[in-house]
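S1.2 Input.
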Amino acid sequence: MEKSLNNKNSQDKILTTAYFIILNVFKKNISTRESKGLKALKYSTLSSSDKAKCNDLVQKVLRFTLFLDSLINERKKGRIRVELFCLLRLALTDILVRGVKKETVLKKYSEFALSLERTKHSIDQLRYYIHLGFSEWNKSALKPLFLFEKKLLEALVGQYNLKSVKRIEKIFSKSPYVDLYIRNRVKKGQYFEQFKGSSTDPSHFRFSQNVSLMKTKGYISGEWWVQSLSASLPVKLAPIDFKEKYVLDVCCAPGGKSFQLADQGAILTSIDKSKKRLNLMKENLDRLKYDLDLICVDVFEYKPKKMFDIILLDPPCTATGTLGKNPDLQFLKPLDKLEDLLDTQKKMLERCSGWLTDNGVIIYSVCSLQKEEGENQISRFLKKHKRFSLVDPKEGCHLYKDGFEIQKTRGIRIMPFFEEGIGGTEGFYFAYLQLKGNGN
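S1.3 Output.
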């Protein structure tokens, strides 16, 4: 790691940390989440305010990387090192996305480039692109757009169509939002009037601006938790009464669906193999004060003491439906991991199917746009397991909204342009699989 990590200036620390996070994505295939945990990066030493600024810069760079790269490549003369490429992405993000002043950008990035062994001899190139950013590109009123990388783009166009994929790119171009799920006991009459944002139903609220969640009404008293709209739908729209039912939540962390199930009166067991993620879930659980059995165990080692009425399975997936919030994922070659993930999902489905009572239901969900992990996975399961059949979601206005697709033999697909009026949502897939009783 470069010496510049020891810079005392707050802005230098933000730029330095953001630079190495982005460099780790493109040079070492390390996710932004993993990078933040590296001791050498010193992300944990940043103040809360600086962390927020660093995250904002990283998110914007990665969301618009392919757009920015097309500009850089248009004027490229010869090879550009990955280190300089990352620095150029940062500088152009400050210019075209964040509207930072020219004098500030020139000074900050020139000094930073000089402090790095791999970029100190590229000052002229750096300044050339900075001047281009302010002269030609900024004055052309270019609007940065999220773009899918080539392999993923081809896969998605093949599964949907180009028009739908372009609509997804438009949704993913927007700044990430924060959604709250409001628990049942909260009187919601004038609750939302205290917040700035919008709501699609009584249990969901989306902020229209950055807020301090810990200072927001209802945080300490456990009146809500953070959960995206699409992630809440598998439980919210389930045609099931969860009250007093024995329910197992597999791969439960970070906990949103478990909290929903507990909120509806389920007798709940939640399992996950990640101790770190479960510790974060416990922090929320202490605040929300729900009663559930939380166990750190791999699903393939778990030996239930009873059968369950309902099993919610949210297995590992490519998470391509979350690229608007996690833009680094598409640069970590998610499709290269697809076959292994499909095998894991298949084995988890098989294992969980043996823990159901007669007429019990598996709720299967993935935050993926890839049909292999959703529709095709469930079609394969149903062909093999004749005692299982699909059940439709609850009736409601959602059935008639653009981006909410019920496929009679293939489950429910949520496109990111669902609820486009409030900014869209994540891409998601879920299905309700009911086991027929022996007497049926």
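S1.4 Remarks. The two ends are 65 Å apart (CA to CA).
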